[in-house]
Amino acid sequence: PTQEPIDPVRYISNRSSGKMGRALAMEALRRGAEVTVISGPAREPLPFQAEVIFVRTALEMYEATISRFSQYDVFIGAAAVADYRVADPADEKHKRNGDIHHLELIPNPDIAKKIGEIKRPDQITVGFAAETHHLINYAREKLKKKKLDLIVANQVGGENCAFGSDYVSALMMTPQSKDEQPELIPKSELTHRVFNRISEIMGKK
Ligand code: PMT
User: What b-and-e string marks burial along 126-159, b requiring 16 or more CB atoms within 10 Å of the CB?
Assistant: First the structure.
């Protein structure tokens, strides 16, 4: 997840645990890749064999990713990046006074979209889509808009809701693939399949 500060003690965030990011890093390392993880404040520990860059906000994640991207063959965006941040976080803790408070939220940059704009033809980019509704349609839109080579669409909701679970109901989509149905599988198995698909795409580049 990323965290977007409201004041020195409060922030806006989401339910991402870091399990998916960890599973991806483990699988990439198992296959002999050199791995850099740009991680928000996730609960899950990351493998020590990976280079880990810790960030807090979406803006920090954006800077860390864009400045390094040219050195890498593959980018995988599994982070749950906040789409909005508080326009003017307070320097001092907000005091409770019984009044209604309004927060002005402004859009964060879209990291995966920017990566899609600057990527070289030899670089592969993979995104995720976490959706409560219209999983396939929304994921296909994101695949196109962010110029991704592959997107993993995961269903949010229910017991294995993607966020925080060891399991996920997911399917993979490429610009050429036919739509399939999501399948409930462990994240470790999904990441194995993701890297098999990345290898296929690499072979065709
Ligand atoms: O951490 P876990 O508990 O294991 O949960 C895993 C997960 C659900 C967080 C993960 O599987 C997942 O789906 N990650 C993407 C979550 C998401 O909300 O995606 P999105 O639909 O908002 O964004 C689509 C893509 O654009 C993603 O690759 C995302 O990383 C990227 N993005 C989004 C917003 C933004 N400002 N910049 C981005 O790069």
Answer: bbbbbbeeebbebbbebbeebbbbbbbbbbbeee
Testing ligand 1's pocket by substitution, the residue of 81, 138, 147 carrying the most ligand atoms inside 8 A of its CB is 81
What pLDDT score does 77 carry? 98
Q: How far is the CA of 145 from the centre of ligand 1 (A)?
A: 14
Average pLDDT, the chain: 96
pTM passes above 0.90: yes
Q: Using alpha carbons, list the distances in angstroms from residue 85 to 88, 94, 106, 145.
A: 9, 17, 6, 22
Q: Whose alpha carbon is nearest atom 24 of ligand 1? A: 129
pLDDT per residue as tens digits for the range 14-38: 999 999 999 999 999 999 999 999 9
What is the H or E stretch that residue 167 is in?
Answer: strand 167-173
**Cβ contacts of residue 180 below 8 Å, gap of 6+?**
171
pLDDT tens-digit readout, 146-160: 999 999 999 998 777
14: buried, middle or exposed (CB in 10 Å: 19+, 13-18, 0-12)?
middle
Q: Which atom of ligand 1 is nearest to the CA of 65?
A: 39
Residue 20 CA: nearest ligand 1 atom is 4
